[in-house]
Design a protein that fits this description.
The complex is a heterohexamer, with 3 copies of chain A and 3 copies of chain B. By secondary structure, chain A is mainly α. Chain A contains 4 helices and no strands. Chain B has one domain. In chain B, 73% of the residues lie in helices and 0% in strands. Chain B contains 20 helices and no strands. In chain B, helix 12 crosses helix 18. The chains are: A mainly alpha, B mainly alpha. Chains in contact: A-B, A-C, A-E, A-F, B-C, B-D, B-F, C-D, C-E, D-E, D-F, E-F. The structure holds sodium ion (3 copies). One sodium ion binds next to helix 20 of chain B. Chains A, C, E: This is Sodium pump decarboxylase gamma subunit.
Chain lengths: 131, 376, 131, 376, 131, 376
C-alpha cells in the first residue's frame, strides 16, 4: 500500500500546489483588472494591432457603409471586394518590403510607423532604376 | 557464381532476412498511424510524420536510425534536449489569445480542475506496477497537451516517450468523440441549459502585455521546473501582444512551428522501435492515457457543478470540461453541447477562458510533477 | 583485367537488381490500378485536393461558362480574373489563419473541414476587439 | 617602428603572403561557377552558393573553414551526416506528381534503363585506375540527380565529394544542350514522329496515397541502403498526396528546401580546397561525368527503341531519354524534340511518367550501388 | 602610459589600414565605373530584375499611360489597380509554383525564362485532374 | 508530515529560497529591456528576445540555462561559433542596395571616417583599466553594427558579450535621438544648407554583380580576419544582384533572418547572468559605448567638413554622419536634418551611399581590429 499512499500524497500535494498557484494567478489577474480598468478605459488602444490580415474577411461589409459607398458606386460586391483586397494586400506587401530584419520595428506597422521611414526603406530596398 | 557474387546476393537479401515479427507489427502500427492521420484526420500534422518515422525506423537495417542516421540526428538535435517541444510552445503562445481569460479571471480555477486526471492516473499506474517515474510520465498524458507530455516524459521516463506521445496526440484529436458522453452523463439537462451573461470588458494592451510577464515571473519563481514550459508559452504570447515584432511572431507560428513539427514527428516516430515498443506496458499506457483523459473531463465537469452550486445556479457546469488544455477544440465541444440543448446558448467565450486557463495549468502541472518527482 | 571483370559484374548485378525491383514495382502498380479502378470509379474523390492555388491559371476561363456568366456580366475578363483571384486569395488567407500549428488538420481544407471550426479558430486567433 | 609594429605589419600582410597558386586557381574556379550560375543560369540555386563557398574557402587563411568556422559548422551539421540531401529529397517528394507514372506503369522500366550510365561509367572509371569505391561514386553522377550523388559519394568516397557534386549539378543543368544531339543521332525521323495515344485515367486519391507507402516498404525491405533516399522522397510525396498537412508540405518545399539548399551549397563549396581539388582526378571525374550523362541518354533512347519494336512501332523511342531523373527538364526536352518533327505531337505526359520513374529509379540505383559496395 | 601608447598606435595603424583599404576599394570602384560606362551604356540591362513585387506600388500609374488606356477604359483607378495587382500577383504565384527547389533557375523569372517551362512545370506540380 | 513530505515542500520552495539580489536586479533589467523594446520600440526585434532571455535566465534555478537547457543549446548552436551573426549578415546583404555607393565611389571614404570612434573608445577603455582585448571589444560598439559587435567581442572578450551586445543594439536604435544634436553642434547653418547635385548614373547589372565579388576578394586577401563578415555580407548582396536565386534571397532575408534573430536574441539574453553582468565594468561599457557612438558621429561630420573644404564648399558635411553603419537609419537622420534647414534639399542618395560604405567599413574595421589584436 506504500505505492497507493505515495500516489495519494502526490495527488494531494500536486493538486494542492496547482490550485494554490492558479489561485494566486487569479488574484493577480483580478488585481490587474482593478488597477487597469478605471484609469485607462480604452485610450491606450485606439486601434488594436492586427498581426494577421484578418480584417480581409470583413472587406465586403464596407461596401454597404455610406463613406465607402461613394468609392464603390457602380461596383458589385465582388468588385468592391477585389479592390479592397488589392489595396490591403498591396499595403501588406509594402510593409513587408519596408521591414529589413534586424532594423528596429517592422516599419509598416500601422500604429507606430512614420510613413516616411516606410517608403524610404522600401525604396532603398529595391534597385534604383527610376533614374 | 563466385564467392563475391554469393555474398553479394546475401547482402542484397539481407534486408529480407532481417525482417522480424516485431518489425512487421511496427510497420503495421506505422501504417495505422498514417491511416488515422489521413483518413480520420487525427492530428495529422503530428501523427503523419510519427507514422512515417515509425515505418522508416522499422524497415530492416534502416540506415536512418544508425549512428549518423537522419532520424537519430533529428532526435539528438531536438528531442533529447527538449528543444523542439519548447519551440512549439513559443508558436502556441504566439497563436493563443488569453483575452477571454483576462476578462474572466475566475476561469483560471477550471484550468486547475482539469489537471486532476494527471494525478489520479498516476495512482492507477503505480498500482498497476509502474515505477514512480513511469507513473508520473503516464499521468502527464492527462495534461492533454502534446508538447508538455513530450517534455515531461523525456525527463522522467525516456523509455516510454514513444507510447506516451502517441497516446497524447491521439487522445487530443479524440476530444470531440470522447468528451460529449462524459459531459452528458454527469450533468442534468437543466444544468446544460444554464445561460451565462457575457459582459465583455475591454482588456487594455498594457494588461495583455503584462499578463505573460507576470505569469512567467510568478510561476518561474514558485515552480522552477515549470520555467521552460511556461516561459516559452508566455514568451510567444508576449511577442504576440507586443505588436512590435510581427516578423518574429510570424516566424515562430509558421516557419519554425512547421519545421519543428515535421522534425519532431519524425524523431518521435524513430523512438518506436519494435523491441521496446511492443510490450505489455505500451498497451497499458494507451488504456491509462484514455482513463486519464476521461478523469480530466469528469473532474472538470464536477468542478463546474461545484461552481454552479457556489454561484447559486448561475454557472453552466459544461464549461468545466473546457479546463483541459486541448486548445481550442475543448471549448468548441463545450459550446456544441450547450447549443445542442438550447440553440441560442452562447457560452463559447467562457469556455475559451477556461480552455486558455487549462493551457497554462497544464504547463504548471507539468512543472509541479517534475518538482515532486525530483523530490521523491 | 580483374577490374574490368568486377566492373562488368557490378553492371550486370546492379542493373539486374534495379530492373528486377522496378519490374516488381510495375507489377504492384498495375495490380493497384486493377484493384482501384473498378470498384471506385471516381467517387472517392469528388473534388481532388489542390495543395496549391494552381487553378488560378484557369480563372479567366470560367468567365465564359454560363453558370458564372451571370456573376461576371458586365465585367471584362480582367475584372473577372481580379474578382476570382481576390476571392480565392481571400479563402487561402482565411484557411491559413484558421490553422494553428499542432492542432489537428488544416481547418480551411476545402474537403474535410466544418465551416464552424474554421471560423471559430480564425476568430480565436485574433484579438477580441469587436466587443 | 618597434618590434610589435613590425609584427603587426607582418600580420596584416599575412593574407597576401599566404596566397598560393592553388588558391588563385580555386578563386578562379569559384568565379567560374558563379559566372555559370548567373550568366548561363546553370542550376544557380546550387552553383551560386557552391561558387561562393569555394571563393570564401580559398581566400588565404580563411577563418570560415577553421575549426569553428561557419562553413565547417554547416558541413558538420548537414553534409557529414547526409541530413541536407535527405531534407531536400522530402521537398522534391512534395513537389513531384507521380500521376503520369501511375497512369502508365510500364514507364517504370524506362526509369530503370536510364541508370545504365551509372554502371558503364563505373567500368570506365575503374579501368582508368580509380579505386572501386571511387569508381562507384563517379558512376553515381550518371543518376543525374544531385542529392543522390551527394548522398552516395559522401559514403563511398568523401574525398571526391566536391568534384562529383559540381559535375552532377553542372550536367543536370546541361540537359537541354547535351541530350538533343544524342537523341537525334540514335533515332530516325520516322521514329521521332510516332504519335502516342494518351488515354488518361483518373487516379484515385487512395492510389496516390498508397503509392509512396508501397514503394517505401518494397524498396526499403529489398534494398535497405536505399531506405533513406527512397523513404524521404516518398515521405514528401505522401504528405503531398495526403492533403491534410498542407503546412508541412509548404514548409518542406519552401522554407526547409530553400534554407537547406543555401547551406548545402556553401558547405559543398567549402570542400573545394585547392590542394585536394586541383588534381588530375578532378578533371577525369568531370569528363567521366559527362560520359555517364551521355551513356544514360543513349541507353534510355535505345531501350525506347526496344520498346518500340516490342510494341510493334507504337512507342516513340524519344521517351526513353526521359528515364534519367533530371526532373522535369528531361521530359520537357523530349517533348521539344518530338514537337520539332511534328508540331502537334504531344508526348509530354508519357515523358513525365518516364521522368518520374527515373527519379525513383535513381534513388533505387543509389541504394543498390551502396549495397553492392558494402558487399565487395 | 604604455597603455595610452598602445591605444594610440592601434588608432593610427587601425585607421590607417581601414582608410588604405577603403581608398583601394574606391579606386577599384572608380576604375569599374570607367570600364563599365562607355562600352555598355545600358544595353546590358533592358529591364532590371526586380527581386520583389515592388512595382505594385506604381500600378495605378500605368492607368494614365496611353498604351494601357485602352485596357482600362471604363474602369476607375481602383478597379484598374485591382486588375493590375491581380495579374501581377497571379504571375508571382505562377512563377513561384513553377520553381521547384533544386531545379535550375526560378523559372518564372521575367527576364530569362521561356513561358513553356514555366507553365509546364507549374502544371506538373499539380494533380492531373483536368482529364 | 513525514520526511519526504517536508523535503517535498522544501523542494517546492527551493525556487523562492534561491532568489538572490542579483537575480532580482537582472529580472528588473530584463523587464526594462522588454519595456524599451515595446514602449520605446528600440530595436524590438532583438531587444525583446534579449529581455525575455534575460528574464528566463535569471529566474531561480532556471532549467533553461542548465547543461541541456534550451538557451544553452541555442548559445552553443549559433553564438559560440558565430554562426548566427554571420547568417544575419547574409540577410543584411540581401537587403542592402549598394547602388548609391557605386554611383558615388568617393563616399567610401566617409564610411572609413565613421569608424574613428572604435579606436578612440579603445584608447579610453584601456586608460580606464580594461585589458587590451576588452578595450578592443568595447571599441567595436563604435561600429554601430550589431552582428559585427557580436562577432568581434565573442572572439576577443566573450565575458563582455552581453553588455556589449545590449549597448550596440540600444545605441543603434537611438540614432535619431543621439545624432542630431552632435550634427548641429559641429556644423554651421550655411553648411547644412549646402545642396548637392545628384547626377544619377545607370549602374549596369554587371557592375552590381562584380562589386560584391571584388570586395570579397580584395578585403579577404588583405584582411583575412574580415573574411567571414565581409564575405557573408557580400554573398548576400551577390545573391540579391544576381537575380537568379530569388528563392535563396527570400529565405535569407526572411525565414533565416527571422529565425536566427529570435534565437540570437534569446541566446544573448542567456549570457546576462546576474553575477557576471552586475559589475562596475558593465556600467562603464554602457557609458563607453555611448561615447563611441558620439565620437563616430563627430568624426564623420568633421571628415565631412574636411571634404567640404577640399571640394570648395560643395559638400554638405552632414553626410559625413551617415558614414556610421546603422543602415539605413543614419542616412534618414541626415536627410531629416538637411531638410530641417532647407525643405527642398535632397541629399538622401548621397547619405545612402555613405551609409552603405559605413556598412562595409564596419566589417573591415572589425576584421582589422581582430588582426591587430591577433598581432599584439
Ligand atoms: Na490540461
Ligand atoms: Na537517374
Ligand atoms: Na560603422
Amino acid at each position: 500500500m506504500s505505492d497507493l499512499a505515495w500516489g495519494l500524497e502526490m495527488t494531494v500535494v500536486g493538486m494542492g500546489v496547482v490550485f494554490a498557484l492558479l489561485l494566486l494567478l487569479m488574484g493577480v489577474l483580478i488585481l490587474t483588472a482593478r488597477l487597469d480598468s478605471p484609469d485607462k478605459p480604452a485610450a491606450d488602444e485606439p486601434e488594436p494591432p492586427q498581426a494577421t490580415p484578418a480584417p480581409l474577411a470583413t472587406t465586403p461589409v464596407p461596401a454597404t457603409e455610406p463613406a465607402v459607398e461613394i468609392l464603390t458606386a457602380g461596383l458589385t460586391v465582388q468588385q468592391a471586394t477585389a479592390v479592397a483586397l488589392a489595396v490591403i494586400t498591396h499595403a501588406e506587401v509594402r510593409r513587408q518590403q519596408a521591414a529589413p530584419a534586424m532594423r528596429t520595428h517592422a516599419p509598416g506597422s500601422q500604429i507606430h510607423t512614420s510613413r516616411w521611414v516606410s517608403v524610404g526603406r522600401g525604396a532603398q530596398n529595391q534597385s534604383w532604376n527610376r533614374r | 557464381m563466385n564467392v563475391a557474387m554469393e555474398s553479394t546476393i546475401d547482402l542484397l537479401l539481407r534486408g529480407v532476412t532481417n525482417v522480424t515479427w516485431q518489425s512487421v507489427v511496427m510497420l503495421a502500427v506505422g501504417c495505422l498511424l498514417i491511416w488515422l492521420a489521413i483518413a480520420k484526420e487525427y492530428e495529422p500534422l503530428l501523427l503523419l510524420p510519427i507514422g512515417a518515422g515509425c515505418l522508416l525506423t522499422n524497415l530492416p537495417l534502416s540506415p536512418l536510425v544508425g549512428e549518423d542516421g537522419m532520424l537519430t540526428v533529428l532526435r539528438h538535435a531536438g528531442v533529447d534536449n527538449e528543444l523542439f517541444p519548447l519551440l512549439i510552445f513559443i508558436g502556441i503562445g504566439c497563436m493563443t489569445d488569453f483575452g477571454p481569460l483576462l476578462e474572466m479571471p475566475k476561469m483560471v480555477l477550471l484550468g486547475a480542475a482539469g489537471q486532476f486526471g494527471i494525478f489520479l492516473t498516476l495512482v492507477l499506474a503505480v498500482l498497476l506496477g509502474f515505477s514512480h517515474n513511469e507513473a508520473a510520465s503516464i499521468g502527464i498524458i492527462g495534461a492533454i497537451d502534446g508538447p508538455t507530455s513530450i517534455y515531461v516524459s523525456r525527463q522522467l521516463a525516456p523509455q516510454l516517450l514513444a507510447p506516451i506521445t502517441v497516446a497524447a496526440y491521439s487522445y487530443m484529436s479524440l476530444v470531440p468523440i470522447i468528451m460529449p458522453p462524459i459531459m452528458r452523463a454527469l450533468t442534468t439537462q437543466k444544468e446544460r441549459q444554464i445561460r451565462m451573461p457575457y459582459s465583455s470588458r475591454v482588456i487594455s494592451k498594457r494588461t495583455r502585455i503584462l499578463f505573460p510577464i507576470v505569469v512567467t515571473l510568478l510561476v518561474g519563481i514558485l515552480v522552477p521546473f515549470a520555467t521552460p514550459l511556461v516561459g516559452m508559452l508566455m514568451f510567444g504570447n508576449l511577442m504576440r501582444e507586443s505588436g512590435v515584432v510581427e516578423r518574429l511572431t510570424g516566424a515562430s507560428s509558421n516557419e519554425i512551428a512547421n519545421t519543428v513539427t515535421l522534425f519532431l514527428g519524425l524523431a518521435i516516430g524513430s523512438t518506436m522501435v519494435g523491441t521496446s515498443f511492443l510490450k505489455w506496458s505500451t498497451l497499458m499506457i494507451l488504456v491509462l492515457g484514455l482513463v486519464a483523459f476521461c478523469l480530466d473531463t469528469a473532474a472538470g465537469v464536477l468542478f463546474g457543478k461545484l461552481m454552479n452550486v457556489l454561484s447559486g445556479g448561475k454557472f453552466n457546469p459544461l464549461i468545466g470540461a473546457a479546463g483541459i488544455s486541448a486548445f481550442p477544440m475543448a471549448a468548441r465541444v463545450v459550446q456544441k453541447e450547450a447549443a445542442r440543448e438550447d440553440f441560442e446558448n452562447f457560452i463559447l467565450m467562457h469556455a475559451m477562458g477556461a480552455n486558455a486557463a487549462g493551457q497554462v495549468a497544464s504547463t504548471v502541472a507539468g512543472g509541479v510533477l517534475l518538482a515532486l518527482m525530483g523530490a521523491a
